[in-house]
Amino acid sequence: MRIGIVCPYSWDVPGGVQFHIRDLAEYFIRLGHEVSVLAPADDDTPLPPYVVSAGRAVPVPYNGSVARLNFGFLSAARVRRWLHDGAFDVVHVHEPTSPSLGLLTCWAAQGPMVATFHTSNPRSKAMIAAYAILQAALEKISARIAVSEYARRTLVEHLGGDAVVIPNGVDVDFFAKAQPRPEWQGDTIGFIGRIDEPRKGLPVLMKAFPDILAARPRTRLLVAGRGDEEEALELLPAEFRSQVEFLGMISDEDKARFLRSIDLYVAPNTGGESFGIILVEAMSAGAPVLAADLDAFAQVLDQGAAGELFTNEDPEALAEAAVRLLQNPDRLAELRERGSAHVRRFDWSTVGADILSVYETVTAGAAAVAAADDDRGPGLRARFGLARD
Amino acid sequence: MTVTLIWILAVLFAIGLYLSWTAGRLDRLHSRIDAARAALDAQLLRRASVTQELATSGVLDPAASIVLYEAAHAARQAEEEQREVAESELSQALRAVFGEPAQVDAVREAPGGDAATHELTEAVRRVPMARRFHNDAVGAARRLREHRKVRWFRLAGHAPFPMAFEMDDEPPPALADRAA
Predict the structure, then answer these.
(1) What is the predicted ipTM?
(2) Total domain count for chain A?
(3) Does residue A389 lie within any of the structural domains?
(4) What is the CATH classification number for the domain harbouring A373?
(5) How many CB pairs under 8 A join A and B?
(6) What is the pLDDT of residues B13-56, one digit of tens each?
(7) Which residue in A82, A216, A360, B54 is a FRET match for A179, CA 20 to 30 A apart?
(8) What distance lies between CA A249 and its chain's CA centroid?
(9) B141–chain A nearest CA distance, Å
(10) Is the minimum CB–CB distance between A305 and chain B shorter than 8 Å?
């Protein structure tokens, strides 16, 4: 099958959607499909052979922050050329509501189109204004995929229509087979994420940490991620600061080893998450998970069966749960076991097969219809309709 | 006078263009429904065929075989108006027979059973998927068709008002479990 995948965000900037697309493309290539990914990228960044650059993304203020987007005449032309050269059986657009390559592709493409909705943003003002335009473009999508039940609900509420839920994928064995590192073992709590982004919840964990140390003084907190370390430590009284170690940005290999080594993974995120891939990675590596009770997290953790949940933004609840878990090795072992079993449904072998069955479902239907009106050429009105959109 | 006339013509032309564009949109939505319906038909047929094969293969006990054969046969032969009911009954029959993981394992152990289970699993998972895509397309077309401009100018032409396909498509838990 010839598959075209559209990535709306810069390939040079690491991010969840980009990694998802990379893994998906590589999974399909391993299965012998032809895959081309269209993504914004600087001209001098080295790209894998299956990625086609759509030019540099331009930083513009959008929706309250600066987003790097692709739009305008030149990008639209590149999208058209890519679609024309690729002659794809199916085009898979990611995040079609962001005013970038995804939306441009929806405009230009014909034939079977699949779209994945990653974020569950509340409806923005810009989206309400652009609703009519957006709707006309989104109508072309034959199959919609939401990454979680939560993302699906937001999609149904804000855009109407329906979607199937297929979670994000993880290479479970990559994490499960990583070697632990001794210096990260022994009474360690782990956190991965941007340090300076309050949404990721490090401040909540910092507030809870003294209480955890009061009960278990030998506990160490390992923090992996970019950001200002001094600022992060300000919330913590000086005498406890020696128990915190910052590892900075870590590679994928180190991330897997990190998750294999720690005794407890804490995800104190305060909101804005639609999936929670890091929880899946932690469970893949066999790390017991303690997470804020966000809708998306509760779903990934099977409503608390595969990992523990604490009241969102409540440091005391976090500290209490963490201490209870750390003092109970049997419970930790049980969580490791349950997590490892639960996580199999997020492995690429399952997720990739599901996405492929979506492709097959839409292409089968389109082929049947195309065969039926093969002899009926495109009418003037249809041609007009195509010319106008 | 001439200027006014030119303006009126320009506005009429713009309205015409907009209506034509809307008609194009509607046309595309209708062909999307056709495609989604064809896909749904294919998946339903596939599910009924696999069920019938399993029922006649002799790997199941006679009672289960008869239940499945009857349901699959009825689903394949159903008239258009009876289709949703017949397909729902096939879902129920499948759930009744494959309610227990032990039954699935028993089929797997039979010669060729692994392939048959795999096919059935694929089929029962794809039916809800195809149905959701179909009903999504129907919903989008309906929203547009209910709009004033479409009704006043009869942009939908003679195309029948699209109907959603409503059925019970819950797969048997023993087949749908992803943790395996």
Answers:
(1) 0.87
(2) 2
(3) no
(4) 3.40.50.2000
(5) 108
(6) 999 999 998 888 898 899 999 999 999 999 999 999 999 999 99
(7) A216
(8) 18
(9) 9
(10) no
